[in-house]
Amino acid sequence: MRLIRRGLAVGVLGLSAVWLPTAWCQPQAASAAATAAPASQAVDAPPARDIVIDGVLDEEAWRGGPWHSGFTAPGSGAAAATSTRFAVRHGEACLYLAAVMDEPLIADLKHAATGRDGRDLWRDDCVEFMVDPTGDRVEYVHLAINANGALYDSQVRQGGHVATREWNSTAAVAASIGAAGWSVEVALPFADLGLEARSARQPWAIQVARERHATGKLELSAYVPSGGSFHVPSTYAPLHLLEADLSRFLWEVRVPQNDLVVGTPDGLRYQFQAAIGNGTGAARDAVLTAILRNPSGERRSTTAARLATLGPSQSVALEVPVPATGRSLLTLEIADRERPDAILARRQAPVVLEHTPVRLTVLRPCYRDTIYATEALGEVVVRAELLLPAEARRGAAVTARLQSGEGAGGAIIASAEAVADGGAVELRLAAGGLPVGRHRLAVEAALADGRRLEAETAITRAARVDHEWRLDEERVLRHNGEPVLPYGWFSAPADEAAALATEGVNVILDYNAQWFPPERTLAWLDDLHRHGLYGTFYPWPSAAFMKTLSGPVSPEDEAALRARVRAFRQHPALMAYYLWDEPELRPLEPERAEALYRIIADEDPYHPCIMLNDSLPGIHAYRLGGDILMPDPYPLFVRGGLSGRPIEHTARFMRACREASAGGKTWWITPQAFDYYMNKENSRAPNLVELRNQQLQAVIHGARGFIWYTYSHRHNVVDLDLGMPFIGREAARLRDAILAPERPGAVTWEAEAAEHLQAALRRVGDDLVLFAVNTRTAPQNATFTLAGDVPKALYVVSEGRTVTLDQGRFSDRFDLYEGHIYTTRRDLAEGPTLADAQAAIARELAARRKPGNLALRDLGTTVTASSTHTYAGALWMTTDGAVRGNGWRDGTPKEYPDWLQVELPQPAAVGRVEVYSGTITAAEVQVQQDGQWRTAGPLTPQPEGPLVARFTPLPAAAVRVVITQGREDLSAITEIEIYGE
After folding, report:
1. What is the pLDDT of residues 292-339, one digit of tens each?
2. 10 within a domain of the structure (yes/no)
3. 507 with 444, same domain?
4. Which end of the chain has fewer surrounding CB within 10 Å, N or C?
5. Is the pLDDT score of 753 beyond 50?
6. What's the number of domains the chain is made of?
């Protein structure tokens, strides 16, 4: 999820989320419109051999071939004061980068930093390389190097908004200082870059930048102009790897899964499974090496496996000696058997290694080891695993006892026994009469050699309360025993709750509770309750509380957190607690996240906790930090195109939730319902088809809830304003089918690109509902086969048509990104149609394009302002035709004058200006003529509607609204309209 423009919470989730270098934080000009680099700035990387990484650049590969220069200052575009030039080459296994920085003040060159990823590097003269190995301009690697050869490297995601410093490449780096400048040289292995199929079929992207300190002040310059920041990947230059064969580096690697630490005669061993996908186009005898590193040392283990050609990911079991328990870094390397030193793929993941000889997992009750008043559960089921060598556990007698109370001396309520020859057993204990309270569940394993191993946990019988929220065995949220499909928005205003309640919405997530005393949040919950809605929010005692990212929870922090939870836990409108937003980007220690979650769950057993992640490794790392996994897999939609990421990014994240929790946790989703890069010309919000596509993918892959990000863009984008209510109401009608048990294998399909078609069949009583969606970037036809007793016809939901089945088979067409929902229930299929919704969207779009309005964004106007508040909308929102929505707000409250101006694509006569604002009390309109501003007239309030200025038509190249007074000590404009008369 974006770490900007989130109300007051942004201060916590923005720059404090991850330390960012100086160049990253430069403010962008309010009118900056980021556009791709021209073809003339494309960078060619020819093949090269015999490059020695020493920083000297004396090889033939550097003397011949293209070099690139022409660096300019960010923002102003002025030529850099000193010259910088760079070149890119590639070898069989590496990308080679070189840069030469002229420096007339070489004696004053700043180069103090020597360590890896040091924060002091940014006080030195340094050069930066941003390399996107897919060309999608969404995710890339960032390298910064000073004249000592000190390296900072990170992975950057979300189009430049967030970075992970913990990622380390194995790049070879060197620098050299000469009499009139300095140079750097880098060999960046392809194996480190996570190459995908797209990496081999389309140009990459690159930006090179320089930070100069030798003059005593910071001077920034970059190869590609990109506004005020180096981190605008949409502007990066195309990078062509000439004659490069990248196929052998195309591997998908996901680790770890199903991991545990096992005791053996030779010591502890870390066992896990890695999901390996071979995208290289050939079956390969691959050597997989797993490496564990921590402060106690390094251990590695190698196994061999033949990986299938272009097939789905296969699971490979691995085992590594454990150097020591605690936090470690797991690295997985893939190489050809014939060349084990030539690494083809390398992935890293932090892991926490802990060992207990007997590991207990409570299977029933399924949620928080607690039996709730609204569930009829007659037995407790516990899985006991003996993490011992096979010979040690053979014949072990395992006994489980459920005892009254938490002490060891409590009366035995129930017991069970089993023999654990296979290492794991399930024991069932009667619990029908278990009294309210916490009770001890003790397990003992009697080994054949006479040793006895013990483990224990607690089983709780919860008391009946007025508002009980829990998750059931189908991962469905239940309120007082009744199933609920959570469906709502981030940051929707409470004063729109009544309208939202008619749109299928039942929950709103508030980002700002941690900034205010509990009374403010309780009043907000009161407002929601009056309209039948529920809320979720951060439970933290303060915003500062969220800045402690490591170490154990102090007694003082625990007491403050418990008190905060007690203030909210009995409110009838509280649905859940929202714990973390992309914690992997801070980064938060997973152990601390889990400890805080357990404190909240102990203090309030009746409300679940939500964990949001923005990465696949993050889902795995933080899976124990909450009850509900709710990732935000934004496709990042492109203006004039489709999406920056494949739209099936949604499905990948849903599958990761299933894998990370082994199906044992609930997962919801935060889909994209906003313009992600809202200040960039090539960005847009999703349309109705794309909104529905995301929703259907999530449903098909088991999502049990939806909280869309973010409401602040809704009224500005017609497809959001009218499309979201449509799919919200549709989801409400289909609630029972969405929440119904999954039925793997109940439907199969054939299609032109079957891998880009997703489907799932659900049964609700005697009724069937089939969800299907096309993720291909083109239309396709599909034929479905339903298993079991099937009907002769299915009604198509929201489309007003039917399909006929022949022996359980039928065919249908799917347009680009289109989804269809089929059902045996006529009444479920009836209602407003997609065609009706699209027609309404078209009418509203036409209504917003008022005849004669010269200010409309689509006409090519450009908006600038005297200042813009950090949390305001994009400037273009003031010219999008939406008089009700987000817009501009000045960044200098209590200071006047403020101004907002619209530059016309060509001069035109202007005689009337209308401004929609809830704050302006005094303002005038100025027009620009021959570069000079001339006052045209005052803005006058009307009894209803906008402020209006009418004057004799004047020729104008631009129109400016100058504000001299406003309510609430601020200036804000929702929409500006400009007319000839």
Report:
1. 888 777 777 766 666 655 556 778 888 888 888 888 888 899 988 888
2. no
3. no
4. C
5. yes
6. 5
Q: Determine the Cα–Cα distance for residues 299 and 297; give it in Å rounded to an integer.
A: 7
Write the DSSP assignment of 716-749 as a string of letters.
GSHHHHHHHHHHHHHHHHTHHHHHSPP-TTSEEE
What average pLDDT does this structure show over 581-605? 94
Of 414, 434, 461, which one is at a domain's C-terminal end?
A: 461
In a domain, 117, yes or no: yes
How far apart, in whole angstroms, are the C-alpha atoms of residue 525 and residue 328? 42
pLDDT single digits (tens) 465-509: 999 999 999 999 999 999 999 999 999 999 999 999 999 999 999
Residue 256's identity, in one-letter code, is: P
* Position 929, amino acid: Q
The residues that bridge with 914 in the sheet, in sequence order, are 948, 977
Check: CB of residue 921 under 8 Å from CB of residue 969. no
331 and 366, same domain (yes or no): no
DSSP for 183-206, written as a single string: EEEEEEEGGGG---HHHHHS-EEE
The helix/strand/coil state of 40 is helix
Q: What span, in angstroms and rounded, lies between the C-alpha atoms of 185 and 176?
A: 9
At 554, is the secondary structure helix, strand, or coil? coil
What order do you get walking across the sheet with 809-814 strand by strand?
747-751, 780-786, 809-814
Rounded CA-CA distance 227/77 in Å is 8
Percent of the chain exceeding pLDDT 90 equals 73
Angstrom distance (rounded) from CA 70 to CA 85: 8
Would 279 be classed as within a structural domain? yes
Q: Which residues contact 422 (CB under 8 A, 6 or more apart)?
A: none
**Residue 348 near residue 330, CB atoms below 8 Å:** yes
Q: Are residues 575 and 707 in the same domain?
A: yes
Length, in residues, of the chain: 981
Whether residue 23 contacts residue 220, with contact meaning beta carbons closer than 8 Å, is answered with yes
The reply to whether 243 and 257 lie within a common domain is no
Query: Could you tell me the end-to-end alpha-carbon distance of the chain, in angstroms, rounded to an integer?
Result: 44
User: How many other C-beta atoms lie within 10 A of the C-beta of residue 606?
Assistant: 20
Of 219, 247, 275, the one marking the end of a domain is 247
675 and 533, same structural domain? yes
CA-nearest of 433, 402, 434, 435 to 416 is 402
Q: Write the burial class of residue 464 (CB in 10 Å: 0-12 exposed, 13-18 middle, 19+ buried).
A: exposed
Token pair, residue 392, equals 């040690």
Alpha carbons 27 and 706: distance in angstroms, whole number: 34
Q: Is residue 693 part of a domain?
A: yes
What pLDDT, on a 0 to 100 scale, did the predictor assign at position 521?
98
**DSSP H or E run through 162:** strand 162-164
d(CA 341, CA 334): 10
Whether the bond into 548 is cis, omega within 30 of 0: no
What are φ and ψ of residue 585, in 5° steps? -90, -10
Parent domain of 932:
850-979
pLDDT at 393: 86
237-241 vs 204-212, strand pairing mode? antiparallel
Contact 248/269 with Cβ under 8 angstroms? Answer: no
Q: In CATH, what number is assigned to the domain containing residue 936?
A: 2.60.120.260
pTM across the whole model:
0.85
Residue 155 shares a structural domain with residue 207? yes
Look up the CATH number of the domain holding residue 693: 3.20.20.80
Residue 270: CATH number of its domain: 2.60.40.10
Q: What is the pLDDT of residue 262?
A: 87
CA atoms within 13 A on the CB side of 852: 9
Instruction: Kindly state whether residues 217 and 299 are assigned to the same domain.
Output: no
Predicted confidence (pLDDT) at residue 187 exceeds the cutoff of 60: yes
The answer to whether residues 960 and 928 touch, using CB atoms and an 8 Å cutoff, is yes
Average pLDDT over residues 423-428: 92
The domain that holds 449 is classified in CATH as 2.60.40.2550
Dmax of the chain from CA atoms?
A: 102
